[in-house]
Specification:
This protein is mainly alpha-helical. The protein is built from eight helices and three strands. The longest helix has 50 residues, at 95-144. The chain is elongated.
């Protein structure tokens, strides 16, 4: 209840600002020749673009592009508020205002498309790069093991867990991926599970897998 009381003034201000800005953009669009449902679609388009840009800035991705589209939508909203204050004759709006209103849907569609598709492209690139880096670590350590018999540094490296995915562990052990997954997620897990690069992914220690499945190794696909 205390949290709601603190947020009440902010929520009231947000509702008032949104309602007034929504109505002002509608009035500008209607004065520029956009009547009926078309005039009401303009404030929705402006507000949606502003919200999309704000979410990208909060996520910390593509801040420059997000800032550009956020400022553009904010300037559109502020311009509509100022134009309806009496500084412009809405009964006979200038030609440049009619041009801006007519071209806004295409600009808003371009901004929304860039914000959405740029975010998806960054997520896909991150998912493809992560497995490549993790697969190189076990190979590097395996090459160093025969050489490091009398030095202290390789002993320290062997103590570190060699993290691999369920599929990579199953392929190396010659068992089904479901067998490795069950050993790490069963009621009494035999393998310690480590967090992966993404929230929904998990990894296991390859050395621990060798010890657990040493007596129950099966051919691939069984």
């Amino acid at each position: 209840m205390r949290t709601l009381k603190r947020l009440d003034p902010i929520l009231i201000q947000a509702v008032i600002a949104a309602a007034l800005s929504f109505a002002h953009i509608h009035d500008i669009a209607e004065a520029a020749g956009q009547t009926g449902w078309k005039a009401w679609a303009y404030p929705v388009s402006v507000d949606l673009l502003m919200v999309m840009a704000w979410r990208r800035m909060r996520a910390g991705e593509g801040r420059l592009g997000a800032w550009i589209w956020f400022l553009l939508s904010l300037a559109t909203s502020l311009g509509a508020n100022v134009a309806t204050s009496g500084v412009m004759d809405l009964a006979d709006p200038p030609v440049w205002l009619r041009v801006l209103v007519a071209g806004w849907p295409a600009v808003a569609f371009l901004g929304g498309s860039l914000l959405v598709h740029t975010a998806k492209a960054e997520d896909v690139d991150g998912e493809h790069e992560a497995p490549t880096e993790t697969r190189q670590e076990p190979a590097g350590e395996a090459d160093e093991e025969p050489v490091a018999d009398s030095s202290e540094e390789p002993v320290k490296e062997l103590e570190k867990p060699v993290l691999v995915t369920y599929a990579e562990a199953a392929d190396a052990l010659g068992v089904a991926p479901e067998t490795v997954r069950g050993a790490a997620n069963g009621p009494r897990p035999r393998l310690k599970k480590y967090a992966g690069d993404t929230p929904n992914s998990a990894r296991v220690d390859m050395r621990e897998c060798h010890m657990v499945f040493a007596k129950s190794r099966r051919p691939v696909g069984v």
